[in-house]
Design goal:
Blueprint: H1 7-18, H2 34-40, E1 54-61, E2 65-66, E3 70-77, E4 80-87, E5 106-115, E6 121-132, H3 148-153, H4 155-161, H5 163-185, E7 189-190, E8 196-197, E9 209-212, E10 217-221, H6 226-234, E11 239-247, E12 259-268, H7 272-291, E13 295-298, E14 301-304, E15 310-313, H8 314-322, H9 329-338, H10 349-360, E16 369-372, E17 394-399, E18 402-409, H11 414-427, H12 438-445, E19 451-457, H13 458-466, H14 492-498
Parallel strand pairs: 4-6, 7-11, 15-16
Antiparallel strand pairs: 1-3, 1-5, 2-3, 3-4, 5-6, 8-10, 9-10, 11-12, 12-19, 13-14, 16-17, 17-18, 18-19
The protein binds one RNA strand of 76 nucleotides through α1, β2, β3, β4 and α3.
Length: about 500
RNA sequence: GGGCGCAUAGCUCAGUAGGUAGAGCAACUGGCUUUUAACCAGUAGGUCCCAGGUUCGAUCCCUGGUGCGCUCACCA
């Protein structure tokens, strides 16, 4: 037992066992979700069909309000919260066992659905069965878990001790489910591709490295599924998507977690314009389904997610904010220096330009807006714009200043792709693949149809649609520094002593 | 990794201008059959994050560390 186990509760378990009562019975019970009982109870004015009926519910009791011969206890399950009333008159044989109940215990209750004098919907218990005894006490009943670290380390407590928390994660789940249905309705096939990659590719990021013993090779956790999904387009699957967990060995902040979820999709015989339509339609639909409106509130600001979204060219946005063309290298360098960017002359011009764009333009992209036509050197996997060879057929979608989607007309010219890969390798940039993915080039040599591809950050979309300020609030178990033994804050001392 | 901030009872928080601490809730005992953070009376509960230093004396001051939050850099 850990320090969380309460001695009085251990004593209650021992007492139950000595009477032949199992505090952790093996069988579940048939019960109704509380939501259904609440709906079936109707209102005080118009009683529902379940009033007066014998019902069974199961859930966790958060506390006990004990009046001597009457006890009220709020019962919660995933779907809602409903009060249980336990009366001596109705529970004769069981009644002495009330002394063994504690906040946090999981119970099954059978009894008549009714109301109290004040009108509160209540199950008047006739049978109470302990399903699982809680040894650790629940958090403070009024505030719930407030300490943000504990909320994240002990999500299993956070989820039931604060009503709004589980809603966020239920919505996140619905978001993914709606997106799947949306894509399946449009002929997309959900696929699964490897997360262990022999070569890093599909994005610019530092990878996690691991090792396979039997093969005797180092492998990387994927930073993006892109190159595998496009192999499937070569394979003729035509419309594919993956809800892909990606891993990037980078810093952690409000919008970044080392593992995160991208919805990536690829559509043959399409280009980035189709991807714009698809993404704005999907985002609008998700907003309506999850929030009930096309206009959402994020961190106190309103965003209208009605399709179509505004389109704005990268170079035009750049010119508006900076007053000169983005390929005016001297101007870019001097402006960057002026803003204090790391701008020594050997810094790659295009990296510098991207940084200057981030600083001068991205701040103002409240959105929703598609930023289109990125400079080609920033888009090694995208097709060049036939109208202007300086730019690529690519867009990124910004909402509330967050980058939510990235898409392009996929480069399908194997010679051009090989050349761009070789340029990347030659740059020796540590954040760019250090090796040409020959197999991918060969896949293109077999012929890939014109293809539109897109990645949507599911975590950020969930933040936006559930109005959460940090990615860690939409991840059930965000990456935290591990704490040896037990994970609770009380083990910090042991940790410190080891150092 | 840099900067700023936080760490006190199981939980939420006070507090000590250096003299080893207190409330509410939770727990325990008793009372109460209609509460909604129930109420009333009583009891118990603390290495004041860790390690050094200064001091007669440190939870408080100093240094170092750990964890978390915010922020900057990197990234989606």
């Amino acid at each position: 037992m850990t320090e969380l186990a309460h001695p009085d509760r251990l004593a209650k378990i021992a007492a139950l066992r000595s009477e032949g009562k199992d505090p952790y019975p093996a069988r579940g019970v048939d019960c109704e979700p509380l939501e259904r009982l609440i709906a079936g109870g109707g209102s005080v004015e118009e009683p529902g069909p379940l009033i007066g009926e014998r019902v069974t519910a199961a859930g966790r009791i958060l506390g006990l309000r004990d009046f001597g011969k009457l006890i009220f206890a709020p019962l919660v399950d995933r779907s809602g919260r409903l009060q249980v009333g336990m009366q001596k008159d109705r529970l004769g044989d069981w009644w002495p066992d009330r002394k063994r109940l504690d906040g946090g215990d999981i119970l099954a209750v059978t009894g008549e659905l009714g109301r109290t004098q004040k009108g509160e919907l209540t199950i008047w218990a006739e049978e109470v069965q302990l399903l699982s005894k809680a040894l650790a006490p629940p958090p403070e009943k009024w505030h719930g878990l407030v300490d943000i670290e504990q909320r994240r380390r002990r999500r299993y407590v956070d989820l039931w001790s604060s009503e709004s928390v589980s809603e966020v994660f239920i919505k996140r789940s619905r978001l993914i489910s709606i997106a799947r249905r949306f894509l399946e309705e449009r002929g997309f096939l959900e696929v699964e591709t490897p997360t262990l990659h022999p070569i890093v590719g599909g994005a610019a990021a530092r990878p996690f490295t691991t090792h396979h013993n039997a093969l005797g090779v180092d492998l990387y956790l994927r930073i993006a599924p892109e190159l595998y999904l496009k192999r499937l387009i070569v394979g003729g699957l035509e419309r594919v998507f993956e809800v892909a967990r990606n891993f990037r060995n980078e810093g952690i902040d409000a919008t970044h977690n080392p593992e995160f979820t991208m919805l990536e999709l690829y559509q043959a015989q399409a280009d980035f314009r189709h991807m714009m339509e698809l993404s704005e339609t999907l985002v609008e639909e998700l907003a309506v389904e999850l929030t009930g409106s096309k206009t959402i509130t994020y961190r106190g600001r309103q965003f209208d997610l009605s399709a179509p979204f505004r389109r704005a060219r990268y170079d035009e946005l750049f010119r508006e904010k900076n007053g000169f063309e983005l390929d005016d290298e001297p101007a870019v360098r001097s402006k960057a220096a002026e803003l204090g960017l790391k701008a020594d002359p050997k810094t790659d011009f295009w990296k510098l330009l991207a940084e200057l764009f981030d600083v001068t333009v991205e701040e103002s992209l409240t959105g929703p807006v598609f930023v289109t036509h990125y400079p080609v050197p920033l888009c090694p996997l995208a097709k060049t714009d036939p109208q202007d060879a300086r730019f690529a057929e690519r867009f990124e979608l910004f909402i509330a200043g967050m980058e939510l989607a990235n898409a392009f007309s996929e480069l399908n010219d194997p010679q051009e792709q090989e050349r761009r890969f070789e340029e990347q390798v030659a740059s020796k940039d540590p954040e760019v693949p250090g090796e040409v993915d020959i197999d991918y080039v060969q896949a293109l040599e077999f012929g890939m149809p014109p293809t539109g591809g897109m990645g949507i950050g599911i975590d950020r979309l969930a933040m936006l649609l559930t109005d959460q300020p940090s990615i860690r609030d939409v991840l059930l178990f965000p990456t935290l520094r591990p704490q040896p033994q037990g994970g609770g804050p009380s083990s910090e001392q042991e940790h410190a002593q080891e150092k």
